[in-house]
Design a protein that fits this description.
mainly beta; 2 helices; 9 strands; 216 residues; Porin; eight-stranded antiparallel beta barrel; elongated
Length: 216
């Protein structure tokens, strides 16, 4: 690991001729890697530190990004699923994410740059707006005593949800002078925990995002 970091440091010092910054904002569309997941829109904004060279560049950033999806027929963490009780859930998680992206320039002149982007990112969940909805088999609102008993266990399960994750990213970027647009696909490599009290198996976020920004 030390040799890899040293190699990256030497590469930055010897190859890249210009260092700058990028600020950006955009929209996301996310779902899980399962059939019962329906995509939902979110957003993101952030800032990158860039090291620019030819024919490739490097960007290290920090962004806030929301990833959301709606799922149906979820099994519960609690002992009700074996009785045939299921429910729908909206998963909405806000991540503080740090991507490290390489950029390969396919076209580069004085005013226009077009390239491919790729790299990993690590994230920690700082906002969880996930919620669950009444099952068609069981009306939770009509059984307040049951809900009181369930409340503590629900919060315990909710706390071990989407604590963070590792993502692999790839996309396309086009720059004109200082303005740029980037289309990026992000694939989750770590599965979620018991988010919002739902039994999670191998669910991972998949996100397609588009951002508009300024490079200076």
């Amino acid at each position: 690991m030390k040799s890899i970091l040293l190699s990256i440091f030497i590469l930055v010092l010897t190859h890249f001729t210009f260092a700058g910054y990028r600020i950006y904002s955009g929209a996301t569309l996310s779902n899980f890697n399962i059939n019962k997941s329906q995509p939902r829109f979110g957003g993101n904004f952030g800032i990158d530190k860039t090291w620019d060279g030819e024919p490739y560049s490097l960007a290290l950033g920090l962004q806030f990004i929301t990833k959301s999806t709606y799922t149906t027929g979820n099994a519960m963490v609690f002992n009700l699923s074996n009785q045939g009780y299921y429910f729908d859930a909206l998963f909405s998680v806000g991540y503080l994410e740090a991507p490290l992206m390489g950029i390969i320039h396919l076209l580069s002149d004085n005013n226009i740059k077009i390239g491919l982007t790729f790299g990993p990112s690590v994230a920690i969940a700082i906002l969880d707006n996930s919620k669950w909805y009444n099952s068609v088999h069981f009306d939770f609102e009509q059984d307040s005593e049951f809900m009181y008993k369930l409340e503590d266990r629900y919060h315990e399960a909710d706390e071990v949800g989407a604590a963070g994750g590792v993502f692999l990213n790839a996309g396309f970027i086009a720059e004109y002078q200082q303005l740029y647009i980037e289309l990026r696909y992000s694939h989750g490599m770590t599965k979620l925990g018991a988010l919002a009290g739902v039994v999670m198996n191998d669910e991972k976020f998949r996100t397609l995002g588009i951002v508009f920004g300024v490079h200076f």
